[in-house]
């Protein structure tokens, strides 16, 4: 059974280094597929009627009582309302809520000169394509990103534990605009030890 | 030696349940004193010249490589620039970067009916008193707030470990607007097992 059949929807591309956006109705399920196995997908959700309400990691952690969503957990908005529920996860269950989206400042600090794609720019461009401007850059849900927290509160950047074709399923709890960015980070190994950003895919059903 | 003498500045009040704001110059040190020992102080910083740049927990964690600042750590802005450095801490070293400021939605969910002060409203009112409107509500640095992270990624809300009169010192790394809110949470024991919000104090030197 292929990924498309398993996920019950048209397979759509999140191109390596780029972002995509979709409008999703309450009750629909978005499946995000880690096609090559080691690609982090920065994820955001906004209330489709009012983008000043957005999925908030700092509000979600307090409600989930976890730093990392598990199946059954609901991500909440900055008004503490349910936005997305994690209903299935074949990726190993390691995602991140702690680390900001990459941005041009990050790449400058890492020594990159000139333009570099970033998840922050991908979010802004995706929203602009829907005519949404001026939205905040919320702290993202970093699907498949592996940022372990040590007993001493330390955090470290590690390669994903997900495998090729593994996926997460997220059910929309309100009408949403969702944005997914295949993280273009190629200077530290968050997208795998080879530091090569890859495509990912998704379906909406 | 009294608190005022020890902290080398005029002792100023953060009234229980309320917020205060100050303009602080680069190089100045703000000392926040947990006068009664168990009061959480939600803290924010904004670039004094451009409040769209603000102290960001999600950017700071990635730079500090910790979920919880220690002496010597620098909190960074959403443009990844240094804003505040923790230079001294007599409180036991337990602060929180994970949990959103309380807001009216939080108190509604906890069953409160009618008005309740909140750190989110305190921030907005403090900024408005300086003529700053429309700023984001960044995830705060919750001084003295005790949110342990378990080995399984769980978080829990615990009373502070700080003691009466203990303090933290924060050095401004750029010209800042800082806001401090003595958290009005009285329905869960984040401000001590007795759930009674208290005054705190601060100095600027």
TrEMBL record, chains A, B:
Molecular function terms from GO: methyltransferase activity
GO terms for biological process, alphabetical: methylation
Protein name: Aminomethyltransferase
PANTHER family on file: RE64534P
Keyword Zinc among UniProt keywords: no
Parts of the chain that traverse the membrane: none
Domain DUF1989 span(s) in chain numbering: 14-177
Listed Pfam families: DUF1989
Database matches in InterPro entries: DUF1989
């Amino acid at each position: 059974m292929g990924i498309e059949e398993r996920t019950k929807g048209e397979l759509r591309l999140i191109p390596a280094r780029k972002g995509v956006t979709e409008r999703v109705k309450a009750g629909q399920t978005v499946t995000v597929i880690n096609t090559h196995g080691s690609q982090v997908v920065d994820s955001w959700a906004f209330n489709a009627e009012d983008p000043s309400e957005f999925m908030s990691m700092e509000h979600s952690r307090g409600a989930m009582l976890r730093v990392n969503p598990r199946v059954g957990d609901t991500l909440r908005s900055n008004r503490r309302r349910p936005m997305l529920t994690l209903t299935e996860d074949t990726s190993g269950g390691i995602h991140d809520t702690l680390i900001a989206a990459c941005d041009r400042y990050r790449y400058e600090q890492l020594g990159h000169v000139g333009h570099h794609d970033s998840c922050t720019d991908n979010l802004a461009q995706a929203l602009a394509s829907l005519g949404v401007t001026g939205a905040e850059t919320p702290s993202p849900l970093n699907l498949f990103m592996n940022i372990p927290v040590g007993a001493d509160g330390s955090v470290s950047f590690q390669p994903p534990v997900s495998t090729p074709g593994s996926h997460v399923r997220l059910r929309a709890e309100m009408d949403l605009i969702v944005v997914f960015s295949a993280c273009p980070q190629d200077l530290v190994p968050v997208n795998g030890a080879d530091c090569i950003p890859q495509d990912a895919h998704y379906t909406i059903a």
